[in-house]
């Protein structure tokens, strides 16, 4: 049960961080740095595993 609780907490934290990341990118309107591009790609991959769908942010990477 502890592992499940930790997974749920981690997913909740990830959702919050993903939303804040998307807000930052939308607000800046600038080209992402290499780190931001890599991080966005990683979060898009995690999003796909968590939700089973592509993240809307993945369309903006590349």
Compact overview of the structure:
The chain has helices at 2-28, 34-51.
Walk me through this protein's architecture:
73% of the residues lie in helices and 0% in strands. The protein is an all-alpha fold and 62 residues long. The chain has one domain. The radius of gyration is 13 Å and the shape is elongated. The mean pLDDT is 72.
Question: Descriptors for this entry?
Answer:
mainly alpha, 73% helix, 62 residues, elongated, single chain
Q: What Rg, in angstroms, do the CA atoms define?
A: 13 Å
Annotation field: number of helices: 2
As an assembly, this protein is single chain
Query: Which structural class should the secondary elements be placed in?
Result: mainly alpha
Tell how many strands the DSSP assignment holds: 0
Q: Beta-strand percentage? A: under 5%
Largest sheet: none
Provide the residue-averaged pLDDT: 72
Q: What sort of overall outline do the alpha carbons produce when their principal axes are compared? A: elongated
Number of domains: 1
- Low-confidence parts: none
Percent of residues in helical segments? over 70%
Give the N-terminus to C-terminus distance in angstroms.
Answer: 39 Å
Helices and strands, in order, run as HH
